[in-house]
Every structure is written in structure tokens, then in C-alpha cells.
Write a structure and sequence with these properties.
The chain is an alpha+beta fold. Helices cover 20% and strands 37% of the residues. It is built from two helices and four strands; from the N terminus they run αββββα. Strands 1-2-3-4 form a four-stranded antiparallel sheet. It is flat. The two termini are 15 Å apart.
Length: 91
């Protein structure tokens, strides 16, 4: 996760609520590159919580030091859907 150094408590809260990554599958439908270092991603989250068809979403990925990461804003919006708030990013 982009700028995710202070998100460990968020990940712990996800695990406590049983929505940790191992309980959610992601299917990427499409990727549109906005620049060399940013992409818009359309995907479906699949979990027992979301029913058989899953939950269609879109968000962004960014390249940081040569590695692609989920944009912090996208991650925080998704965890917000289950009532979890992200702290402000570290400066």
C-alpha cells in the first residue's frame, strides 16, 4: 500500500473483523494507465460478505520506486466500507 507505513493498526482491525486479505479474493477486470506511474483499476472483491456476484469497485494503483502499490486513498476508501478509518499518512 502506498504510504502504508502507519497502517498496521488498520490491518489488525481488519483481521479482528474477519475481513483480512486471506478472506477476500480480488478479480481485476481492467487497468487503464493514466501515466507511467499511475493506473485506474476496476476490480471485484469476492467474499462471503459480498454475496455470489462480489462487489465491483474501482481505484488507483501507483508505482513507487519501481513497484506497483494500491493507492492509499483507494485502500482507505475500501476499509472505510466496513467502518474502519485510516490514520493520516505519515509526513
Amino acid at each position: 500500500i502506498e504510504r502504508g507505513a502507519n497502517l498496521a493498526p488498520v490491518m489488525e482491525e481488519l483481521r479482528a473483523n474477519r475481513v483480512a486479505p486471506q478472506h477476500v479474493d480480488v478479480a481485476v477486470d481492467s487497468i487503464r494507465f493514466l501515466s507511467d506511474d499511475e493506473a485506474e483499476v476496476h476490480f471485484v472483491l469476492m467474499s462471503a460478505r459480498f454475496g455470489q456476484s462480489g462487489l465491483a469497485q474501482s481505484g488507483h494503483a501507483v508505482r513507487v520506486d519501481g513497484d506497483w502499490k494500491v493507492a492509499r486513498d483507494t485502500f482507505c476508501r475500501l476499509v472505510g466500507m466496513v467502518g474502519i478509518r485510516c490514520p493520516p499518512p505519515d509526513a
